[in-house]
Amino acid sequence: MRLIEVLGALTFLVVATITVLTIAPNAIRSASGDSPADWSTTESGPVGPADRDFLTKVRQAGLWEIPTGQQAQERASSQRVKEVGLMLAADHTKLDEQVRALAAKLNVKIPSTPNADQQGWMNELSQLEGEAYDKVFADRLRAAHGKVFAAVALVRAGTKNDEIRAFAQVAVDVVMKHMTLLESTGKVDYAALPTPPPPSPAPPK
């Protein structure tokens, strides 16, 4: 009888453990599988890893696009590239002020330097001028905006934080504007852009 009781208790513990492992994550984790420890609570809603990554990306975009837009005034040969450079620098100056204020309010630490890829692009551009500069300027910036657009759009669609959502809306609009401006230079090599992923398979009928 004792053995039966012990086996019964063990069975209960195994079932309970499986239930917790199976159900609990869906209740406490985000869609990306983040644990509760990755989240913080604010007056405008929870802040998760994707929200912090979004603020980081916006900050780093400004850290290389502002000086690059200014640099284009001296190194570009195309008047349109110079004009677009000024607009990108001006827009990112405003975004940078907003992202720093929001990050401070939500207690999110953001970087003070561009990432490794951005630093590489800046180094590449600093060695060019004229037509060669125009082409690389348009290609690098257009590709970078395409990548950040996808990330910002996902945050805009799924964030739980009201202030992040509002700022993501602003960022989406700016990124869309900048892609269009860069394309207006006539220097973008569309063949070099990454191919969009194939659509998801249709569900079985």
UniProtKB/TrEMBL annotation:
InterPro entries: DUF4142, Ferritin-like
Boundaries of every DUF4142 domain copy: 50-180
A Pfam family this chain is assigned to: DUF4142
Region (Disordered) residue spans: 31-50
Signal sequence extent: none
Transmembrane segments: none
Protein name: Putative outer membrane protein
Organism: Sphaerisporangium rubeum
Taxonomic lineage from the root: Bacteria, Bacillati, Actinomycetota, Actinomycetes, Streptosporangiales
